[in-house]
Write a structure and sequence with these properties.
The chain is an all-alpha fold and 184 residues long. The protein has one domain. The chain contains 6 helices and no strands. α1 (2-31) runs parallel beside α5 (133-155), α2 (37-69) packs antiparallel against α3 and α2 (37-69) packs antiparallel against α5 (133-155). Probably functions as a manganese efflux pump. It is found in: Cell membrane.
Length: 184
């Protein structure tokens, strides 16, 4: 029984890292704007908060859906994770490098919402598969906050080549979890 919980925690940790990689890649670009440390802290906290709210809503909705459709919900959750991962990989290659929105005020909310939309879908899949809600959302929020801060700080030093690779890595991890759920 303890092995099951350790396995679930490790799976959620990898998933949190994969979701945070999207925030990391976006924050690399924002970090190249030479933001002040206070702004970096605010951006990281905002993205982390959205990575808590969005999957929480998704998990609640996923649990509601799974009660009505049973085993099909697990398959749908696996397909959803696989699709999100594939989308992240594809977007890494067709990404536009222009910064359209400044991470201040309403622009910060738009950036945080946009970066965390994939975590809503993952939360939906997790809710269908019966994951631990509090543990999942706290891991998602912490990982995305830390990875956002890391990306913003590294963005000051690095000039863009890590962004594509981090999104590919995150997408690959989500694809792997989707395939794992489908194989069960």
């Amino acid at each position: 029984m303890a092995e099951y919980y350790i396995g679930e925690i490790i799976s959620l940790l990898f998933m949190a890292f994969a979701l945070g990689m999207d925030a990391f890649s976006v924050s690399l670009g924002m970090g190249m704007q030479q933001l002040r440390l206070k702004r970096i802290a605010i951006i990281g906290l905002a993205i982390g908060l959205f990575h808590i709210m969005m999957p929480f809503i998704g998990i609640l909705l996923g649990k509601f859906i799974s009660e009505g459709i049973g085993d099909f919900a697990t398959i749908a959750g696996g397909v959803l994770l696989l699709g999100i991962g594939a989308q992240m990989i594809i977007n890494a290659f067709i990404q536009d490098t222009k910064q359209l929105i400044e991470p201040v005020g309403f622009g910060l909310l738009v950036v945080a919402l946009t970066v965390s939309l994939d975590s809503f879908s993952v939360g939906l899949g997790l809710g269908m598969s019966g994951a631990k809600t509090a543990l999942a959302i706290m891991m998602f929020g912490a990982a995305s906050t830390i990875l956002t801060w890391t990306g913003l700080l590294l963005g000051r030093k690095v000039r863009g080549f890590l962004g594509v690779y981090s999104e590919i890595l995150g997408g690959s991890i989500l694809c792997g979890f989707g395939i794992n759920i489908l194989m069960m």
